[in-house]
Design goal:
Number of domains: 2
Largest sheet: 8 strands, antiparallel
Number of strands: 8
CATH topology of the largest domain: Jelly Rolls
Oligomer: single chain
Radius of gyration: 21 Å
Structural class: alpha+beta
CATH superfamily of the largest domain: Regulatory protein AraC
Helix content: 40-55%
Length: 293
């Protein structure tokens, strides 16, 4: 019988988890929570996708010295592709959980699997809701035989759905504008969402904000965490995802409605973000609706 991935990782870490267990339902996971203090560890790639969420402690870097791929702080997470080796450096005590994706699962889990498989290194992200859901899940798991399995299944499904949204949807990342820029940015964001099918040139957005081009780019990225063109692409992809799921509209028409220059432009952008074509995404979500999952 093959050794489960989590046992291999446990051996390479040189530590045992303080909590562990299996979660069933629409998002089947094997969960481990670790709390320890060490210097650095190397973990060879395992054969399944994983999600790591840090709850507290010191900083954690992943990569090699002078070539760090990520820096993790409390409430930060990483989607780990299967088969990708990682090297971790811990600056003090670390408290984190690892969620191993088991076979099957919801569309969100399958989408995260595809997204992870399209990368050859961990994908870091930060979201307070994902961190809170992960912490609530492991705290419930720690109750042992008194843990509410149905509650944990709901937490796991929501955690994966939110993780996918944060990794693929610009609008899911929130807005944090300074109060003096709120009115300017509100006009710009409203215009973007109401005119997706149109040519959203930066010059048009600058006129709406009534500032210089350099100042507009600075305040937009400060508020949204990304440049305007990336935000617009994210909003267009999110609208396309909704139309693919909720409407029978032809993909070519969806591309037009969402402001893509052609169906092939939508397909290339969608595949780059979601690791699947619009047609395959529609087929997968349609099958899930028909089975009632």
């Amino acid at each position: 019988m093959p050794v489960p991935s989590w046992l291999k990782v446990r051996q390479e870490l040189g530590h045992s988890p303080i909590v562990e267990g299996r979660i069933g339902g629409a998002a089947p996971l094997y969960v481990e929570r670790y709390l320890y203090q060490t210097l650095e560890r190397t973990v060879s790639g395992n054969d399944m996708t994983g999600l790591i969420t840090q709850f507290g402690g010191g900083r954690v870097r992943e990569g090699e010295r002078d070539h760090w791929r990520s820096l993790s702080l409390p409430t930060q997470s990483q989607l780990l592709p299967g088969g990708v080796p990682t090297h971790w450096y811990y600056a003090g005590t670390v408290d984190f959980a690892v969620f191993y994706f088991l076979d099957g699962g919801s569309s969100a889990m399958q989408s995260l699997n595809r997204l992870a498989a399209s990368h050859d290194e961990p994908i870091p992200f930060s979201d307070q809701l994902v961190g809170a859901l992960a912490l609530q899940l492991v705290n419930e798991l720690q109750k042992g035989c008194l843990a509410d399995q149905g509650f944990m299944e709901q937490l796991a499904a929501l955690m994966l759905e939110q993780s996918f949204r944060v990794l693929t949807t610009a609008s899911a990342r929130g807005i944090n504008p300074r109060h003096v820029h709120f009115a300017r940015l509100q006009r710009v964001l409203n215009h973007i969402h109401e005119h997706l099918a149109e040519d959203l040139r930066t010059a048009t957005l600058v006129r709406l904000a009534d500032v210089s081009l350099a100042h507009f780019r600075r305040i937009f990225e400060d508020a949204m965490g990304m440049p305007p063109h990336r935000y617009i692409l994210g909003v267009r992809l999110e609208q396309a995802r909704k139309l693919l799921t909720l409407s029978p509209m032809p993909i070519a028409q969806i591309a037009q409605e969402c402001g893509f220059s052609s169906q092939s432009h939508l397909t290339a952008s969608f595949r780059a973000t979601h690791a699947v074509t619009p047609a395959h995404y529609r087929a997968a979500t349609g099958a899930e609706r028909q089975t009632g999952n």
